[in-house]
Amino acid sequence: MKYNKANDVSDRRSAASNAKAALLQGYLAAKDAAEPTRTAKQAERLALAEARETRRTEREQVKRDELARIAEEAAAREAVIVAAARAEVEARELVEKNRVARVLEDEAARKLERDRRYANRKARQA
Length: 126
What we know:
It holds the Pfam family DUF6481. InterPro entries: DUF6481. Helix content is 96%, strand content 0%. The chain is mainly alpha-helical. The mean pLDDT is 91.
């Protein structure tokens, strides 16, 4: 058998080329066959991503609502504290006014009693 190097190389090249073409054809066929599955998986992933985004948005809304509720409660507590402080100040002022009024009444009663005694003493002397 006669060995021909040029034919051997060209045969190997054509075999390699045919093998590459067959691999490419197999890949394209597999890709086309998997296209519905790939599209379905992609749609499923997209739906999951949208659902995940919706849940995230809902969680954020719940957090915002909770923070607003907490802020409202804090404002209400603050208003109650301020009202209680005002009431306490008013009560102290009322107690102080009553005390001053009693002192003035006692002072007036003492003066009245003193004036009565003075008048009685003058009446006895005359």
